[in-house]
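To whoever is on call:

I kicked off a structure prediction for a single chain this morning and the downstream step that reads the tokens threw a length-mismatch warning. I double-checked the sequence; it's 122 residues and nothing unusual in it as far as I can see. Pasting both halves so you can look.
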Amino acid sequence: MIRIPAFVTVFALTVLSGTVAKAGPLTAREEKVQIKAARSLFDKGRKEFQSLTGVYWSFTPDSSTRPTLNSTISSYRLGIMLNDVRGDGCLRGNYELLLEAFAGTIYQGPGNGLGGATLQLR
């Protein structure tokens, strides 16, 4: 016969009773955590920040006389979701308002740099 020490029995019962107690209703804090986790990144009022960068090359596949304009550009966007996600299939989505600022250098072609800002509805 195997004899189990008393402290092991007490420990096992404590762990089991804690597990059973957790199976009951959630506390207010646990509910908040679950609700926060269930929120989508696309819910109304959510904000996002994007940073984009790239290199652009111009090419002329036809025999036109357009000037070459090769550049680099960096863009920063701040967006806010205007409504919650709705719809089904390929029409599922929401609207977002974006404010964008961009700047870059022209390394081949006329000019030295470019820059600007846009307001977009996506």
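Update from on-call: the warning came from a stale cache, not from the record. Cleared it. Sanity check on the structure: The chain has a mean pLDDT of 82.
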